[in-house]
Amino acid sequence: MASFHLGKSIRLKMAASLPGYGNIRIKSLDGVDKLLNIEMSEKYDYDIPDDIEPEALYEEFEYLIDKVAKMLKEQPANHDMFDQVLVETLATMVYGSNLIESAGAGFGITKRLCEAIFKSEEIREEIIERDNDYELLKQELKAKNLPHGFLAVLQSHREIIQHAKAARYMIQQVYLDGKDISEGIIMEAHRILTFKIDTD
User: Which Gene3D superfamilies match (predicted)?
Assistant: First the structure.
């Protein structure tokens, strides 16, 4: 597996996209780099409920963009930590999505497998009964009154791995490589997501 750290790649792309001073660098539909200055519109609707102050929110938004831009450029000591936060956030996304679908497993195993995939670390694609996670996965399935035989444990393990790989693929294609989302990309992500997964 080629060395690729998803968190680091996202951070580097964010750093290139946030030059600071309330600006965001984007690529237009015709492939030209553009610098957008985010400004509050004069047409903003002030007739909104609650005690929301649009100017204060805009100033906070601009401040936070600049703060993130500065941190991404000037604090290399925090880069590893920032990369790890991104990876953990993506692992949480995979866990939550699997939870909605009653797929995968608990957060601990999901986080560990996702982190390995997002950092291009070697992992065993097929779980075997003597793996450390096997018994833990089996107990999690049993506690949920779900089938917990070998094939069920294998399926649970695969669901996490394939979901993480599909997420990595989509992020790499659309965000990092700047490709337009297309039927082909969606179909490939679906193929990755369901590879060796029993969908019955």
Answer: Fido-like domain
Q: 24-54: b or e for each residue (b if 16 or more CB lie within 10 Å)?
A: eeeeeeeeeeeeeeeeeeeeeeeeeeeeeee
- Domain assignment present for 71: yes
The region, left, alpha or beta by phi > 0 then psi within -120 to 50, assigned to residue 178 is left
pLDDT tens profile 122-150: 888 889 999 888 999 999 999 989 899 99
CB atoms within 10 A of CB 179: 12
Tell me which amino acid residue 110 is. Answer: T
Two structure tokens written together for 120: 């291009």
Cβ atoms 52, 12 nearer than 8 A: no
Does 2 map to a domain? no
Go through 154-163 and write b for each residue having 16 or more CB atoms within 10 A of its CB, e for each that does not: bbbbbbbbbb
